[in-house]
Amino acid sequence: MYRLLLNGVVWIFLSLLTTTLLSAQTKTICSGESIPVGWLKIGERICRGSGCCPPYYVPQIVIMKIDGLPVGSNQTVCSSQRIPVGWVKKSESSCNGCCGYSLPQMNIKRIDGLPTGTIERICNGSTIPNGWIKSSIEDCNGCCGYNVPLMVIKKIEGLPAGAEERICNGERIPIGWVKISEHSCNGCCGYSIPYNTIKRISGLPIGAVVNMCQGQTIPAGWQKITEQQCSNCCGLAVKRVTIKRIA
Question: Hey, where are the domains in the chain?
Answer without folding.
Answer: 159-246
